Task: structure prediction
Amino acid sequence: MVLLEGALGAGKTFLARAIARGLGVPSDVPVQSPTFALVHELPARVPLRHADLYRLGSASELDELGLDESSAEAITIVEWGARFGDSLGRDRLEITLERPIDAVRRAVLRAHGNRAETLLAHVMTALAVPAAP
Result:
């Protein structure tokens, strides 16, 4: 599970689209924020779901969406999910995007759980970014 956070316009949907394309979602399939549908299933090499929790009022509304840890076979990208982090699962990667300042974008990545820590280590290695102390 990957949770994307950031202000409006910070690039959450752009990053979700880039991840989806990287996972093989064809370019003719629109990858848009599922603000009103809440969850989109996308055709990728692995099961891929894209969710937007901006409109949810409480964690009790999550049950109907099926985004919990029991669906570990899918990659789930969740916009506006950090406030529901503990309800969504203990194993997640949180990415907080900041709006560009002087044309520089910044992303803060935090791993919660063993799988997320392994994923974050792979990402940092691929980007050749030194780990934070």
The chain has a mean pLDDT of 87. The longest strand covers residues 92-101.
